[in-house]
Amino acid sequence: xxTNWKDKRVLILGAARQGLALARWLSLHGARVTVSDTRSADxxxxxxxxxxxxxxxxxxxxxxxxxxxxxxVLCLSGGIPLTLPIVVExxxxxxx
Length: 96
Description:
There is one protein chain. Helices cover 28% and strands 21% of the residues. The two termini are 17 Å apart. The chain has one domain: Rossmann fold, CATH 3.40.50.720. β1, α1 and β2 form a beta-alpha-beta unit. Strands 3-2-1-4 form a four-stranded parallel beta sheet, with helices on one face. It is an alpha/beta fold.
């Protein structure tokens, strides 16, 4: 079965290699991508510039639970613990 990512609201936790590759791929397939990372906009400036051609929203400096209010699918970059409050809350809300 092939997933249609067009207009799906996808939240990716972690802006390391895995999360950024996924953000790029999902963006190319029409998803509305948000990348959340604990690092600041300044720390991720070069990364953000390298992905400027993609329509990616950045939520930096933490993982506020409010991000889940506009999320259809949650994706975790490698190293993101399953015990993180936003991950636990996503499970409680039934967000895959």
